[in-house]
Structures are given as structure tokens and as C-alpha cells.
Design brief:
The structure is a homodimer.
Chain A: H1 8-18, H2 21-27, H3 35-53, H4 57-63, E1 66-68, E2 71-73, H5 78-87, H6 106-119, H7 121-140, H8 143-155, E3 158-163, E4 179-182, E5 188-198, E6 207-214, E7 227-232, E8 234-237, E9 240-244, E10 247-252, E11 263-276, H9 282-288, H10 290-318, H11 342-374, H12 378-413, H13 425-432, H14 442-455, H15 460-476, H16 483-509, H17 512-546, H18 552-569, H19 572-581, H20 585-588
Parallel strand pairs in A: 3-6
Antiparallel strand pairs in A: 1-2, 4-5, 5-11, 6-7, 7-11, 8-9, 10-11
Amino acid sequence: MPEYKAPLRDIRFLIDEVFDYPASYAALGASDATPDMVAAILEEGARFCEQVLSPINRSGDEEECQWRDGVVTTPKGFKEAFAQYVEGGWNGLAADPAYGGQGLPHSLGLIISEMVASANQSWAMYPGLTHGAMSAIHAHGTEEQKQTYLTRLTEGRWTGTMCLTEPHCGTDLGIIKTRAVPQADGSYAISGTKIFISAGEHDMSENIVHLVLAKLPDAPAGTKGISLFIVPKFLPAGEGIGERNAVSCGSIEHKMGIKASATCVMNFDGATGFLIGEANKGLNCMFTMMNHARLGTGMQGLCLGEASYQGAVRYANDRLQMRALTGPKAPDKPADPIIVHPDVRRMLLTMKAFNEGNRALAYFTAQQLDIAHRSDSAEQREEAENLLAFLTPICKAFMTDSGLEATNLGMQVFGGHGYIREWGMEQLVRDCRIAPIYEGTNGIQALDLLGRKVLGSQGKLLRGFTKLIHKFCQAQAEHPRFKAQVAELARLNQQWGELTQKVGMAAMKNPDEVGAAALDYLMYSGYITLAWLWLRMALVAEAKLQAGEGDSAYYQTKLATCDFYFKRLLPRTEAHRAAVEAGSDCLMQLPAENFAL
Amino acid sequence: MPEYKAPLRDIRFLIDEVFDYPASYAALGASDATPDMVAAILEEGARFCEQVLSPINRSGDEEECQWRDGVVTTPKGFKEAFAQYVEGGWNGLAADPAYGGQGLPHSLGLIISEMVASANQSWAMYPGLTHGAMSAIHAHGTEEQKQTYLTRLTEGRWTGTMCLTEPHCGTDLGIIKTRAVPQADGSYAISGTKIFISAGEHDMSENIVHLVLAKLPDAPAGTKGISLFIVPKFLPAGEGIGERNAVSCGSIEHKMGIKASATCVMNFDGATGFLIGEANKGLNCMFTMMNHARLGTGMQGLCLGEASYQGAVRYANDRLQMRALTGPKAPDKPADPIIVHPDVRRMLLTMKAFNEGNRALAYFTAQQLDIAHRSDSAEQREEAENLLAFLTPICKAFMTDSGLEATNLGMQVFGGHGYIREWGMEQLVRDCRIAPIYEGTNGIQALDLLGRKVLGSQGKLLRGFTKLIHKFCQAQAEHPRFKAQVAELARLNQQWGELTQKVGMAAMKNPDEVGAAALDYLMYSGYITLAWLWLRMALVAEAKLQAGEGDSAYYQTKLATCDFYFKRLLPRTEAHRAAVEAGSDCLMQLPAENFAL
């Protein structure tokens, strides 16, 4: 297994040099998050991920979770690691101090989550789902619910889940069948089956708090008739737990990857539940935390891509095979290390360009999350909310698709050894493969971006973002080194608006045009977004080099990777643009039954 | 698991209507391969694959092969299926009648192999490797070796392997360490360790015949000092087996996929071996069968893509989720089948366009294989050999990369269920993932295409192929329906030559330009090649429709898929072209140590 080493240099580059998190934290009143404090947290977090989580990643995959009579046992070391995580205060890092949290910025929490998932994606699911439940209760719970549940979730004594999917529906939550019948005491009896429930049952915590979507007896049909309920595994009693609730784990799934994450079938047999938020507004409650969760899911692409890259670079330097086409580079050895071969470098640089570009995208977006949560200015908050709404589906889908490409390349660098489980490279592919699927498939993200966000706002959300790029290009149009790249970005930025208009016009006549264009439109958008971020990074690196500041090799590498991105990855926009412009006819003309011919 | 149904209609379309195999077989004197006989063989082969091999595919993946004290047990049903396969005469279908084979054309053998691998890729490895060993012995063995080994391999009583890779070398066979010491009796004592040996040990056959690359004591360094040896598990005795040889299976690998294929570490401890072919010419012996083996490996992309497509189409018609954007299509149901959604169709059509295009590429190439083997005309044979040399790396790499994309899309169509092992869709991804790696990684194929084949022949091999396309485009330039597509193909065909010239010029100054361009050049070539084949298929379909012959829905579907290919997949050439033109600087400028920064 590639040993994970947290990329602290690259993290610091983004937060200190590119996005100036310290200024942002100060402006947002996050006074605890001083540069020293942030540095200490990152280093301590890195240590935990490298030393505790990374070593149990491979073994967790081989052991998988075990189910027996409703009891789920996690792989060796998982429970202990969770205890250490809680003990270290990591669970409540970005949580509300009113309920026991440390109140640090969400962006910092996300960076810690990045390290956690890079080291051990399966393990990351347990705190990850808990954070989702915490957000929901924080946003929609009553004060009593917060005191009862949020404090214990923050403490890490209890963990949480999100129970949405049912056997017959995932994307289409309007047709869920789980029922909630009001009881005399104000609670509800919840009955139904939920599937794909991550961390639905396990042995890490005293109690598990399920957030369950269900329908009231008189609920309107469709998505407007869904309510959200808190259904704890054990009913709370005093400071701890009381009676066991009528919720149980019927089985766990056997999956392609994230095998140490318990994916549960949860049976609710008249379980006691408590309404959270307004009746029939359950889906809205879910949506309020979607941006955060989807950004987190998007980051999995980055996390596993990073882990894979680290393994691939080490291997490419160690493995001796063939001579360089330009003559031996290690004449004293039987062959040259494979990093001398251009095609191996193509793979490594593709991974590197995606990872570092995706990290920039994630951190830029996380900064907007902080602003949306904390800014005093309503205008700033709205601007940040708009950027978040626009960038979230791109983060989720582009980062997971490119992350999957990265993990596949990392495996390819290993040749036949990449296919052998022992090396750990293929696990990263399998663990990553769920990310383009869950938390809304990438196809759904694409519809969200193009249909709901871009066209649904009459282009306003797109313009809010392309305006940033436009201003950047204007300001840097004469940059002595990056003039050509700036011009290319400006050209694509303008094309982006024009392409959107074309699709919008076509969609007015035929709504299928949106679905036909969506996925390629999203990928196209992602490549342009990363081009902007790569230039922003390159400008900083160039300025540091000019000023003779800091580690010149690091900055030179940034410049070279940016160069690679513009020359070899950005041209993919052309294929996506053509696919968008192809329209829906070539997809819709065939009757469904012809597909099987 | 998606139940495999052999796509006989599509197979017949290609062999009867597009490539006219009957005429080709007649011209090549393959008089046994009458249309009736071919039809009967295909139907019987389909039945075997559907009823015997497909049902043990999922269970084989879950059981995996088991190793204990050097003995390997294959999953339940594997041994029995092999007995049925041998009993049915499938093993010797395309083998030389002089040694017990049926002497049918190789192209027909490849179609049967396609069905076998589509139904069960792991199982397909056992006869697949046997066929490889048979080819080698047929081409290079003495008459005595053929009588001893080839007859029993053809009979299916014995199976074969190819032992090339060692722990420290795969691509770079020049540095192998396995040694062959001449013995007084004319045999050799073989010592060394080989890894990744498919079918190296198992319980299906009485004996296993290893073809082993090793070095003689006085061998020159590098690839010119490698010899090939026959090393049987049991030494032959009379009509059967005698003494056990000093070769043993040290362990089997735990892999990402093809888990029911035994991938063995083979230890040779002074085992008795027999030289096959000339001393120090072992690599040449291997190369003579590379085209065949690489075409077969390329077909795995098609096979697993086809299996995945079949599952995905069924699911897309069954699964109800959301309403069509243009209004309900199944108003009596709670939601519409997901095949109404344009993005689901995009995924299905991408798979379909790759699968059917790849099948056309494979069958066209297989036809050249027949000509190269059987034609009376030296000129025809040379032309076929040249086409084979050129197309083989494209088949291997393009078909496996696009096949991997197809299996990933098939899994994506299933949403969360695609990630669950029970459904079998993720297995197809895992089983496919080895194909871009083994039998020469796709990076090596790309170097073979651009460096060895195209530039190495001063463009001759490329021109031999683009000439075919050029003639086709000239002939169809005014086609009333396909004029635009023909023009687009002609444009790309010309660009292909120009692009090649550019790379060739650059490579004269800097050999790294070849490696830098190779992979994208290969993919670019693959897309253009498939465009030609798609147009050829479309022309046939159009002609049949015009003539009112046959199944119009089938032909309409061909036309629609061709349309999709040109509009949505062929534009990817643009991204690959740009990457090729980017040159090597953006790959090579960084010192190796900077990659880890």
C-alpha cells in the first residue's frame, strides 16, 4: 500500500499563498484560526492520518466489515482509530461551540477531512456521515434536539447516518415508501426499508442517530410530501442511552470498494422517530447541507488521486525497466527508472495536474463556504452562496471523474503489479469508483449544473463566475510569461457563455437538450475552471520565483505542471464542446427497444 | 450478473454483410467453413457460452482460485466446463489438422473466443493461454515436439502457458535472470522464478506445458540472448505423462479481477526443459504469435464491454426513476424507465458505438490474419501482414481502453447498484482493468505503433491503411446520405498523415517526441479507424434499407449509432491531436525528483 504522506507544502501553498486564508479568517471573525493554530492543527492532523489511518487502509479492505445477526464488526483497528480521533478533538473541529464544538472554519475541517480520506477512505465514511447528520440537526433541529443529539454527535460518543435511498429509489426520492405515523406522545412510528446506509450499523460508538426521510399519512405525492425524522438506535435517556429502538441492520452490502465502510440495509419496524424541521419539508432540510456533502464527495476524487499519485511517483523512481529513448540515464543499473519514459511522465503529470487543480478548486469553494456561513455582509454571503451553488456540482462530478482517471493512471504506472491487491493501487481505483455514483450521480450533478443552476438562473450564476475569470484575464492580459495562456482562457471563457446560450435556446424548444448536453457541459466547465485556477497558482509561483522567495524547485514544478495542463488537458474542452453542440437528436431518435438489437 | 446472450445478429452482420467472410473463406481454400457450417458452429458456441460459462462467472469471482501446498483449485464448475469444452471440440477448432485440429479459419476461432470471454473472462484464460502455447510450438517446434506436445494441447488433454515475466522485469525482457544450463542428454536445466503466469497451475488438465524464456550460459546480453524452452509439468511418457518435473507453483496472486484465473508464481528448480526454435532467438519466437495474442487481448475490451452493455440495457429498461424532461412516458407507472433520460442514452450509445465499432475492427483484423496464414498470393499475404502489423497495437490498446470506458459506463447506468458485487456490473470493470496492462501495456502498444510500425517503416504501414480509407472516401464522396461524414473522415485521414509527419520530423531531433506523442497518437488513430468502420457498416445498413431487405429496425439502429459516433465520439480526435502536437518539452522539462514535491 502506498504510505500516505500529507501534502502539507501544497496545502500551505494554497491557503497561505494563493487564497490567503489567514486574511479571510480574520475578516470572518474566526479569531481562533490564527496562522500558528492552523499550522499546528494541520501538522497534528497529518500525523494522525499518516500514522493511525493509513496503516489500516489495506487491511480494512481485505477484512471488510462483518455482519452477524444484525451486529456489524468493523475491521481491526477501526474502532480504536475512531476513539483516538474523538480523543484528539477532531470530530468537533468545525462544530458549533454552543454544542461542544471548537468552532473552527469549515474550510479547515475540510482540509482535515481531505487528509483523513486520502489515508483511509473507508474509515472516513464514519465521521463523514456523522458530520452530515450534525449539519442537518444544527440547521433544522429544535434546541432540545440539539442538546440531546448534536452535543453527543459533536463529542463523538454517538455517530450519525443519512437514510434516503430505498430499494426502488435513489435519485427519485419523490417515490419513497417509508411511512411515519404520528403517535399520541408527539413522536412518530417509522416503518420501511432503507438501503445503502453508510455507517448504518457498526461497533464504534455507543449510539447511532439515523436521519430518515419518510412520508406522513396525509403527505402530498412526490418530493413535496417528504419529512425528515431523527431515529436513534437507542432512545436517549438522561446523559446516555436507554431502550433499544425498533431499527435494525438486515444485512450489509458486498461492494467493489470502500469495503471497510459498512453499507447497511436498515429496517425500521415502527421505530420511534422525531420530526426534525417542518413536516413535508424534509427534502429542503436535506438540500441545505448538500453543498457541503457534495463538496466532500468531490474531494474523494482528489484524496484517492493524491494517494495514488504518491504511490506512482515512488514506483516510477524505483522501478527499473528499459532505457530512455535518448540514451541510458542510469548506466550503472540494469535499466533506467521508468520515470525517464515520456509516457510514464504523461501519466504522472496528468494525475498531478488534476490533483493540484482539484485541490485549488476545493479550497476556493471551501472559502466560499466559510463566507456563506460567517460573513457579516449579506451581499458577500449572497455572492458566496451563488458561487457555491454553481461550483458544487462541478466539484462533485469533475473532481470524482478526474480523480477516477488519476487512480486508474496510478495503477497503470505499476504495470502488472498495479493489478495485484498487495500493492494497494487497485484498491484506490475501487474505493474511488463509488464517488461518481453516490451523493447524486455525476449525471444528476450535470443536470443540476446546467438545468437548475445555469439555465434556471437565466445564466446569472454562470455569469457570476465567468465574470471573475473575465476580470482575471483582463488584469493579466499583458503578463510577460502567461500572455498566451491568459488569452486561451479568455477565449474559452467567452465560448463558455456562447455555448450556454446555444444550449439554452435549444432547450426552450426541447427540454431533452439539457439532458443531452449536461454531462459534457459539466466536464467542459470543469476544465475551464481548472485552467483559471492553474493560472492563479502559476502567477503566484512566478511572482515568488521573481522575488527569489522560498523553494524554487517547488515553484518551478508548479509552472511546469500548469504548462502541461494547458497543453495536454485543456484541449479536451474541444471534444466536450462538440458533444454539447451535437444536440439531443442523436440520443433520442431510437425507440427504447432498439437498444437491445 | 448480467446473463450473457451471444450477439449473433451483430456477428452475422459483420461476417456476412460487411466483410463477406464466406467469399474470403472460399478464396482462401477454407472449404470446411461453409456458411452452413459456420452458422452451426456459431449457434453451438453461443449455447455453450450462454449455458455453461456465463452461469459460473459470478461464482468464480467470489470463490477465486485457491492455492494450497503448490496445488491450485479452480472455482466450482470450471473443471467440468473445460471438460465440456474439450469434449465439444472447441479447443482444436482452428488448430492444424496434422496434429488433431479441425483446421477452421483463425477468424472463426476468434469469434468463438469472443463469446467465451464475454461469458467468462477468467475461464477464458485457460484455453487462451493454451492457444498461445500451441501457436508457438506450431511455428517453432520440431516435428517430434509437435507430435509430443501439440497433439495433446490440441486435444485439450494438456494445457499451456507462456512464462515471460519475472519479478524485476515485464516490459524489459532483456534483463531476465532465468537460466538454462545444457545437459548431457541435449535437454536443459531451467532455474529461475517467473511471475504473473496465467494458468500456471490448476486442476483442469493432466499436464501443463510451460513455454519459458531463459538465458543460456553463453548468451549475449539483452534481448538477443533469450531462448525459448518447453518445460512440461510432467515429463511425457508414451502416450501420457511420466515423472514430475522440477517446476512448482509457489503461490497465486490476489488480484483486482479475473480472480478465477490462476495467476501463478512459478519456480523452476533445475527443471528439465527442451529448446524450441533457435538458441538466442526466443524473443523472435514469441513475436511471431504476438499479433494473434494481442488481438485476442484487445478483444477483451469488446467482450467485457458487450457483457456490460447487455446488463445496462436491461436495467435501463427495467429501472423506474424520475420522469422524462419532456413529460411522462410511462404514466401508469410511478416513474419512467431510465432509458428515457438523454444522459442514460448517452452512456448506452457510447458503449454500443465502441462495442460494435471494436467488433468491426476485430473482425476486419481477423480477416487479415486468415489471409496472412492462408493466401496463395505472396503479395496478398504481405499486404495482410502489413495491415496486421499496423492494426494490432491499435486493436490491443484502443479496444481495451474504450472497453474499460464501456464497462465503467455500464456500471454507472446502474447507479448505486452498480457498485454492489451481486449485480455483477463492477466485476466486468475489474475483469477488464487488466487488459490495458498485460500483453504489453497500452503505453508499449503505443510506442510499437508510432515508433516501430509507423515511423519505423517511414510511414509505409500507415499509408497502406490510410490508402484504404482514402479510396473509400473517394468512392463515397457523393453519397446522398453520408456525404458529410465521408468528408469528415477524409479530412481526418489527411490530417493523420500530416500529424504523423510532424511527429516524425520532431522525433528526428529528439527521440522523446515519439514517447511523448505515442499514447494520444494511438487513441487518435483508433477513433479514425472506427469512423471508417462505422461508415462501412452504415453504408451496408443503408443499402439494405433501400433495398427493403431484412430487419429494418436493426439497420436503423446501425445508422443511428453511426450518427452518434460521428457526432459525439469522433470529436475526441481533436483533444488527442492537440496532445500529440504539444510535444515532449512539457513532459521532460522537470527533473525526476521534482515530481515528489
